[in-house]
Write a structure and sequence with these properties.
This protein is an all-alpha fold. α1 (about 10-25) runs antiparallel to α2 and α2 crosses α5 (about 95-110). It has helices at about 10-25, 25-50, 65-70, 75-85, 95-110, 120-140, 145-155, 165-175, 190-195, 200-210; strands at about 180, 185-190.
Length: about 220
């Protein structure tokens, strides 16, 4: 049985919509996924602040604060910061600076008119942020499972493509940097490794995150 309550369906459906585009794999789908996950961040905050207190654990806010938080994307992140303090000083699961960076990539797609395909790192950053913020605000413990169940209901069960991990990406890229293929094209080492050999990506990422070196046991 789903743990997503009726009053949380709006932002959740946006997340499922974005996930569908991400799994489709086409260039235009990646752009749509970036935009939709980013929208889900905003919609989660807006929907939560518009709830009756009974639907958010009897938590109340001053009207002036709600009006201030609803102004724009950055003030909605101000609300997340305030809410994390209210919950006992919880940490940002996805750093605010990373969320803003991904949002700026979305703006380039939506408003900049520059074209092109957004980088996979931007998409997975905002995906993780959207899922974390939704789960935090609407008390959904396992959002990934809810997404899988919803997609299975809509399309039938499929073997999910394993998702990259931000900590692995950061560790791999810090160690190996960019890989240059031509005079004008370079790619993050984590992106290349993930696409070519996912098992190696997991093994090397885990080892680097644990403080080891990938050549300790002949991984390189």
């Amino acid at each position: 049985m789903s743990t997503v309550r009726n009053w949380a369906r709006g932002p959740f459906d946006l997340i499922v919509h974005a996930e569908g585009h991400l799994r489709a794999g086409e260039d235009i789908d990646r752009s749509m996924a970036l935009i939709s996950f980013d929208n889900a961040v905003e919609v989660s905050v807006t929907a939560y602040l518009m709830l009756s207190p009974i639907h958010r654990g009897n938590v109340t806010y001053q009207n002036a604060d709600v009006e201030k938080w609803q102004k724009n994307y950055h003030t909605k992140l101000d609300f997340i910061e305030a809410d994390l303090r209210r919950r006992g000083g919880l940490p940002w699961k996805v750093e605010r600076t990373d969320i803003v960076w991904a949002h700026n990539q979305r703006n380039e797609q939506y408003h900049g008119g520059t074209g092109g395909v957004p980088g996979r790192r931007a998409v997975k950053t905002i995906r993780e942020a959207a899922i974390w913020i939704f789960g935090l605000l609407f008390d959904v413990v396992d959002v990934e499972k809810e997404i899988e169940d919803e997609i299975a209901t809509l399309t039938g069960p499929k073997k999910p493509k394993p998702q990259p991990q931000l900590d692995y990406d950061k560790a791999i890229d810090a160690r190996f940097g960019m890989i240059k293929f031509t005079r004008t094209s370079s790619y993050y080492a984590s992106d290349v490794l993930y696409e070519l050999d996912h098992d190696a990506y997991k093994a090397i990422g885990a080892k680097l995150c644990a403080g080891g070196e990938p050549d300790d046991e002949g991984d390189e």
